[in-house]
């Protein structure tokens, strides 16, 4: 069983929905109805929220348990979200008959792709799937800060209602230009550990790849409140491109 299979039932308790994120997405996408694709949707908390707001949602995630969780939400609330299990690198095939007003990928999902070449290929596919003035929004951790400051961990997430504790550790391998990401989820009497290499996409590299993929207007933020991005101090990198 994979890591995300194991944590799927706790995912919404670890990462509860952020109203700042919802507000940012709605402002960026524009008034509903709009055709929107959620890449690496997880349990679908943002897809369901936007669907409830009148947007026409499509969603994809690699993990079967995450999609099962989204399916439960769709059935419970009678939502009209079209979703499937699949790899984000296969978007061109999975959604070749569709076009979107907006596509978003949040939650540091993008850096699970193995190389900058594959990230660029994904950007090209996304650009092809967008309508003329369509927007691509993504959010990852600020890897400029992780690398330059030698950051080894992010603040531990604690939810006393479950209860659970989620620890996140980072180790940058300069030779491989990879970040080893280790997590420890302690919940009730269970401890779930995982480690995976991530591709550290820094801000300038992300902008270069977006330009190469055909995006011409790019806005950069340090969070979903719309604050200015600071390479040394922002915890997140949020990019809006069209």
From TrEMBL:
Instruction: Tell me which InterPro entries the record gives.
Output: Methyltransf_25, SAM-dependent_MTases_sf
Tell me where in this chain the Methyltransferase domain is found: 36-134
Q: Name one GO molecular function term.
A: methyltransferase activity
Q: Has UniProt tagged this entry with the keyword Transferase? A: yes
Q: Which UniProt keywords apply?
A: Methyltransferase, Transferase
Any Gene Ontology biological process:
methylation
Signal peptide start and end residues: none
Pfam families with a match to the protein in the record: Methyltransf_25
Q: What is this protein called?
A: Class I SAM-dependent methyltransferase
